[in-house]
Amino acid sequence: MISIDAHGGPALPEDRVQAIVRRALARAPSFTSAERDLRSRSKRGLLAATFEYRELPDASDHGRDLLVRLSVEAPEQLAAQLGPEGLDVTVLLERDAGQADLSSDLHLATERLAAILQARTDLARGADRAVTRLLESSDPDALILTLEWVRDHPDHAEAREAANRAVELIEHDDERVALLAIEALGQIGGPEHVVVLLDRIQLADTRQANSAYDALANLGGPEAEGFLQFAARNEDEPRRRAAAERALHRVADSDMIQASSRAPRPAGGKRSQPPADPGLAPAGESSRTDAQRSRPSPTWPPSRGHR
């Protein structure tokens, strides 16, 4: 630990904070205290870390929430798999007014940080059954992290096996988890998931509806196309109608490509073309919008320990 920063707010003695962090990391198999290696004068495998925490006023209940950040240097062999976020994790612990105990709350928040660091490391390393295990977690942050990984790695075997669990998580109480479950299902599912997706989404929720339209375009199939046709005709809100229309164009384009790829080739090597229908106008081109949302990272004031 190269720095500890409380940003000028309520603070614990540094040795107490060090003990809290060591205890939390003891629960993460991939991370151990550096003291053992330092006593042997060996620095091989040591990773620099910074730890920051601060209390934030909560206007809703006049309490003070606790924002905690742990940033650990990414191991060289995992840097590419971890991506730009690396092993930099922030947790916001919401506290009711009059129930703030900095020592115990810091311990709780740091345990959550360590669990997320371990989860991110397991996914980067491709640990066996990591996706399945993490998607059973009761921690929304662990679910969010794993669903993002599934969404971004749709060709991975463990990601494809997570489709049924993604369906279940569409009804999660945390809106962030539910939206990511829809996005992930759109990447790893198929036409067979259209009906179960439509059974679980809340169409009155604009964010869920727009995410579902995008997912349906990816899932494809006649059920997806039929629902999008209905939505494009009946949506009253202009932006939702536009989202349904864009998704419908994508499904139609995908069906045309698949039909073209299955069409038999004549002896000359060129595909035969169906006769033109003078009553049909060519469909206009449409561009796909990015439906993936990410949570904004908290902004930290300048600190000597923040790299």
From TrEMBL:
Organism field = Enhygromyxa salina
Q: Which InterPro entries match?
A: ARM-like, ARM-type_fold
The segment annotated Disordered runs over 248-307
Q: What is this protein called?
A: HEAT repeat protein
A Pfam family it matches: HEAT_2
